[in-house]
Structures are given as C-alpha cells and as structure tokens.
Write a structure and sequence with these properties.
Length: 246
C-alpha cells in the first residue's frame, strides 16, 4: 500500500489505459478522482475502486473546457482536501493525411489532448504548490518521437505534451512537484482496436518484444512515477513500447 493516504486524479479514467491506471493506483492505496466525459463508465470504475476499499469520486468533465476543469478541481478539493497525483490521460484521435485534415479535427485533437493537459495541470499546481508536494504524469505517445502519417494533429499534441512536461517540471521543481511523461507504443485499447488488421500486422513486426502492450503495462509505470520514492525523477519521458522505438 505504497500510495495509502494519497489522492490521485486521472482524466479519461473510465476505460482503456485510464481505467487501468485508476485501478492500479487504488490497488496500491490511493483514493481516486476520475474526470470523464461518460459518467456511466466512470461510475462503473468507481464501484470497482470502492470494492478495493478505496474512496472514489467521479466528475463529468470535458478536459478541454476551462470552466468544467476548474469546477471539477473545486469539487475534488471539497471532497478530499488535497491532490497528490495528477495523471493527464484523456486523449482522442481524428486521423487524416494533412492535405485532407479539416480545421475542426486539428483544433479538437489539440484542445482535448494538449489544452486539456494544460488546464488540468494549471489547476493542479495551485493546490500542489501549497502542499509543497505533487506528482504529475502526462500520457504522451511514441509517435511524438517517430512521427506518424495520418496523425499530424495527434502527433503535434503528443509532442506538445513533452514540452509542457519539461517546462512545468522546471517551473515547479522547487515546490516539490515532479512532472514526467510516459510515451506508450501500441497498447491494446478501443483506440487501437479501431485500426485495420493489416496496419496492426505491420506494427507488430516493428516490436522487438513481439507483442502489443496492455493498459497495465502503462499503469505500472504510472504507479512507479507516482511514488514518493520516485522524487528524484522529473522532466523525463519514460518509453513503454516493447522496444519499437530505441
Ligand atoms: P480510449 O480507450 O479511447 O480512452 C480515452 C479516454 O479519454 C476515454 O475514457 C474518453 O472518454 C476520455 N476522453 C476523451 N475525450 C475527453 C474529454 N474531452 N474530457 C474527458 N475525457 C475524455 O484511449 P486509450 O487507448 O486508453 O488512451 C489513453 C491515453 O493514452 C490517450 O491520451 C492516448 O492518446 C494515449 N495513448 C494510447 C496508446 C494506445 O496504443 N492505446 C498509445 C499511445 C498513447 P469517452 O470514452 O467518454 O469519450
């Protein structure tokens, strides 16, 4: 129970990688706040968290909306009094080659993936700096380092996450807040289930460990970075990709 007494907030915690992160942090003792668009899914995860013996609060928040994020943080603080861990996980894709990409698809992906992380981080550091303690973990992607045809909006958002991570790490190091990113490779969730089989076959051949990752592969690294004992790591990107990028 290395995270007992810690309060953790996960965005997009209702499914996929966010769900695995929420359950893992709860299993190790954290009480959880979930920001999620779909309240039904978040309620289901909250029930699982209660059955692990931890508290859970799910709040319907669109992370790209300033007022919703600020209101969500107010509710979180009213319920728990502090926030020790923030995981900026919520993310979407709207893929197209650049010549066919619509303005609204560029804007939407940047707003959810990058502005969402900015808004949640801005609210979190206010509380964490008063506490003089915090762990912020941002979910980037391997494509931020490799590029990926058809995903110029998504790749730009995930590369932006890396810049945000390093900058906030420098701004808040003196306040005891560490800020790191995880860059997952191909992880089996609904986001990747949507890809055509032949694309998946090509990707599998690029992975030295010979298999796709699971949400728990990412969640276990989040848990590690969230520990008090990981406090000498900041401004870093940890790659979780079975060796496909090295
Ligand atoms: P997923 O299954 O699609 O889950 C994404 C979650 O984010 C969903 O619960 C979704 O809620 C939520 N969400 C979307 N827009 C939101 C918004 N505006 N406000 C609040 N929540 C929102 O995707 P995943 O594969 O678990 O991905 C999780 C993160 O890992 C993403 O940032 C993704 O870019 C990153 N990642 C994934 C992979 C991979 O291979 N799967 C690889 C690298 C990085 P709804 O379902 O209600 O819309």
């Amino acid at each position: 129970m290395e995270l007992e007494g810690h309060i953790a907030l996960v965005t997009g915690g209702g499914q996929g990688i966010g769900k695995a992160i929420s359950l893992t942090l709860a299993k190790y003792g954290a009480d959880m706040i979930l920001f999620e668009l779909n309240s039904e899914k978040a309620e289901e995860v909250s029930k699982d968290i209660y059955s692990l013996g931890r508290k859970a609060l799910s709040v319907k928040v669109d992370v790209s909306k300033t007022e919703e994020v600020e209101d969500g943080f107010r509710k979180a603080i009213e319920s728990f009094g502090r926030i020790d861990i923030l995981v900026n996980n919520a993310g979407i894709t709207k893929d197209a080659l650049i010549v066919r990409m619509k303005d609204e698809d560029w804007d939407k992906v940047i707003e959810v993936n990058l502005k969402g992380a900015f808004l949640c981080t801005r609210s979190a550091v206010k509380t964490m700096s008063k506490q003089r303690y915090g762990r912020i973990i941002n979910i980037s992607s391997v494509v931020a380092f490799m590029g990926n045809p058809g995903q110029v909006n998504y790749v730009a958002s995930k590369a932006g996450i890396v810049g945000l991570t390093k900058t906030v790490a420098k701004e808040y190091a003196a306040r005891g807040i560490t800020v790191n990113a995880i860059a997952p490779g191909f992880i089996q969730t609904s986001m990747t289930d949507a890809l055509p089989e032949q694309v998946k076959d090509v990707m599998l051949k690029e992975i030295p460990l010979g298999k796709f990752g699971s949400p728990d592969d990412v969640a276990n690294v989040v848990r590690f970075l969230a520990l008090k004992d990981s406090g000498y790591i900041t401004g870093q990107v940890i790659h979780v990709n079975g060796g496909m990028y090295m």
